[in-house]
Amino acid sequence: MPQAWRRLIFLVPVLVITLILVSGLYTGSLPKPRMPKVVFDDHHPFRSECQANQTPPSLDNLPDIIRALWQPLILPITAPRFVTLDGTEKLLPPQNELVHTKSMGKKICILDVDTRDLAGEGSIFYNEGVPPWDKLGSPSAGFLSHYLYAQIHGYSYKFIRAPQYEDRAPHWSKVIFTKELLKEYDIVVMMDYDAMFPSPEVPLEWMLNYWKIDKDVIVAMAEDPAGEPNFDDSEKHRVNINSGFIIAQAGEKSQRLFKDWAECPSEVRYKGCAKWGQTLFHEQAAFSTHVRYDFLDGYSIDTHPQYIRMLPCQEANGIPEVSGSGCVGHLVRHYWGRKGLTNREFGHNVMAALTPLLVQAAYKEPGHVEDLRSKVLKGAEVLDKPPAR
């Protein structure tokens, strides 16, 4: 038995208890006992009515527990090969061409930006306490999966409850705050709630190696499906990018590009961009039609392709259920076609690590299983008769 599994067996009950505390996972068919109402205040971030005079349980070590649970499953950053859930093989470039060989840790930030209240039952900011698993809303499932992914790999995580903007749709806030977070982190990965990692054991650094996203790349985004209405308004009529999954790298060039992109509806640089302030597809149409053809010092994606990376739709967009679009999401899934399935994906993210640990603890370790298959008994016997005295 691998030493890593032995170290982790004791963590199974710890994780189960923690998940019950954090997510209200009790949904069994037995009669529910009366549970104390969970409330939040400034002094005790997690506390129940019956614990008013007790020290509330600490969640400070939850990230350590998550990382330990997934450790045996994590794909090494330099692993030459990865097989996706549908059996597709992905191969890294030669080892001497890899961009990353070590984890960037907290220098990477997984970013959620949202303007919604998210305070109803089933939401992460539910004002009556923590949302129960069986009522968890689709947006909350997506957000939780992002937090989980960040903790698995030791990355930073931020959730920005963005303000409203008078002259543009809420979607533009992702551009504005990605730019701001790039002042603090080397890499910012902005994700819509319905964009998720189907294989959370794959580190971002491995994907950067696979897509050959080196230090020159300012921003990488997936292509949309090649069909109407997913083409830009330029004379090139090229397939749009999809801004639901953005990999952005810090630097002077990135600040300039994101500034111009954020100011696009104000037409500071791009004439005719004002309409994308409120018109579908908002910020991604603005980038697709204007920014990628004129950024920095008059660069174009055609003349300077090293700065903007278009990721294949098959790998970083869509889901298997919309495979007819050519986008199945081998490495990053985007559930724009089935937003209600984010709960299923989040459940898979959690159980992908917990299931092998439970199997190992319950059925591979001595103490729980008694194997009588080699016995040949008669009648209602259970064990061999004891020898006569």
Automatic annotation (TrEMBL):
Any one Gene Ontology cellular component term annotated for this protein: Golgi membrane
Keyword set includes Cytoplasm: no
InterPro entries: Glyco_trans_34, Nucl-diP-sugar_transferase, Nucleotide-diphossugar_trans
Record has Transferase as a keyword: yes
GO aspect biological process, one term: protein N-linked glycosylation
UniProt entry keywords in alphabetical sequence: Glycosyltransferase, Transferase
Domain (Nucleotide-diphospho-sugar transferase) ranges: 172-298
An example Gene Ontology molecular-function term: glycosyltransferase activity
Domain of life where this protein originates: Eukaryota
UniProt-listed PANTHER family: ALPHA-1,6-MANNOSYLTRANSFERASE MNN11-RELATED (PTHR31306), NUCLEOTIDE-DIPHOSPHO-SUGAR TRANSFERASE DOMAIN-CONTAINING PROTEIN (PTHR31306:SF3)
Family named by the database record: Belongs to the glycosyltransferase 34 family.
Name assigned to this protein: Nucleotide-diphospho-sugar transferase domain-containing protein
Source organism per UniProt: Triangularia verruculosa
Lineage, top ranks: Eukaryota, Fungi, Dikarya, Ascomycota, Pezizomycotina
